[in-house]
Amino acid sequence: MAAAAPKDDLRARFARLIATSGPISIAHYIAESNARYYASRDPLGVTGDFTTAPEISQMFGEMVGVWLADIWQRAGGPAPVAYVELGPGRGTLARDALRVMERFGLVPQVHLVEGSPALRAVQAMLVPQAQWHDDLSTLPDDLPLLVVANEFLDALPVRQLVRTAHGWRERMVGWDGERLLPVAGDRPMDAAIPPELADLADGAIVETSPAAATVTGEIARRLAAQGGAALLIDYGHAQPRIGSTLQAVRAHAGVDPFAHPGEADLTAHVDFAALVAIVGQFGSHWLGTVTQGAWLQAMGIEQRAQALAARFPSQAEAVAAALQRLVAPDAMGDLFKVMGLAAPPWPDGAGFA
Ligand code: SAH
């Protein structure tokens, strides 16, 4: 039995579940915590828990819109075509990108994949023409797709394996009577570890994201079948690496990922190297993975910032500060990556040279 049932109900529910049937996987813990977290609130902005690139400046969504319009035009401007965004948050990126795309004569259908009823309501204010989907399975399958995901893959559950004195085990979440905490599972998992990683030292953690792989595979499969292109933007690493990247953020500060399930944003770094291999397996063309700073600069964000500052002189300082946050290497510029993919007959994308 769980000692001292905690007040917070998701924590209490996990505690009871674990006390009765044993530790749960890290992936189960993240999936349920984030579903609860996003369903119940709008977490974005200064009054929320974290701020994303489209909420920093309209320039971010505008560069995404320019990229999509450019590749679409060079692909012959097929119509009808669909704009698809995964986890659109407040809908700000969609609004800014669609406004720019319209100037290029690109007026797509709008399909938003969003699990949170609270955020769907916010998105409907900025993108009233949208149709909503719970997952990618119900997206249209008879027209090209222009897909965007910003800080979506990082919110999907990761799986972790940990090296112990007895070999590899799944990393799980246990309950010690007072707190939720990471523990090693009982079952041997050595067969799940690639041979080149098998000899890592005790305590080493290997993290994978089956959910991010599934989503990326489904995008690549659809692009190959339907035509189109996609931008996956997230914080993460372009090269494989070892260790846990699970983190929790609440009120703009890092907190213990196991302390407040459902009340803090749980994310993990996206392993872009793992996703590249999947793109090819499903028949799409990998256009490249570059840092957000380099990509935004190649797309002309500095010129856009100058134009905005000239047109709204009272905003010049705010525009310059936003530009720095988005592109500076010690802000978001290096940690965030932009990965492009496209249907094989589609042209290469701008900004990946
Ligand atoms: N792209 C937005 C929001 C990022 S926050 C921005 O850049 O501001 C993550 C978004 O993904 C939220 O909209 C959240 O509700 C959504 N989300 C997270 N997990 C999801 C899932 N499994 N299915 C559908 N949407 C999900």
Structural summary, described in words:
The chain is an alpha/beta fold and 353 residues long. The chain has twelve helices and 16 strands. Strands 2, 3, 4, 5, 10, 14, 15 and 16 form an eight-stranded mixed beta sheet that branches. Strands 1, 6, 7, 8 and 9 form a five-stranded antiparallel beta sheet that branches. Strands 12-11-13 form a three-stranded antiparallel beta sheet. The radius of gyration is 21 Å and the shape is globular. Bound molecules: S-adenosyl-L-homocysteine. Residues 34, 38, 44, 52, 54-55, 87-89, 93, 113-116, 119, 150-152, 155 line the site of S-adenosyl-L-homocysteine.
Keywords:
353 residues; alpha/beta; 8-stranded mixed β-sheet; 5-stranded antiparallel β-sheet
Write the layout of secondary structure elements.
Layout: H1 9-21, E1 24-25, H2 26-39, H3 53-56, H4 58-74, E2 82-86, H5 92-103, E3 109-113, H6 117-126, E4 131-133, E5 145-150, E6 159-164, E7 167-175, E8 180-188, E9 205-208, H7 210-226, E10 228-237, E11 247-250, E12 253-255, E13 265-267, E14 270-271, H8 272-281, E15 285-291, H9 292-298, H10 301-311, H11 316-327, H12 329-333, E16 336-342
Parallel strand pairs: 2-3, 2-5, 3-4, 5-10, 10-14
Antiparallel strand pairs: 1-7, 6-7, 6-9, 7-8, 10-16, 11-12, 11-13, 15-16
Helix pairs in contact: 4-5, 7-8, 10-11
Bound molecules: S-adenosyl-L-homocysteine (SAH).
S-adenosyl-L-homocysteine binds at residues 34, 38, 44, 52, 54-55, 87-89, 93, 113-116, 119, 150-152, 155.
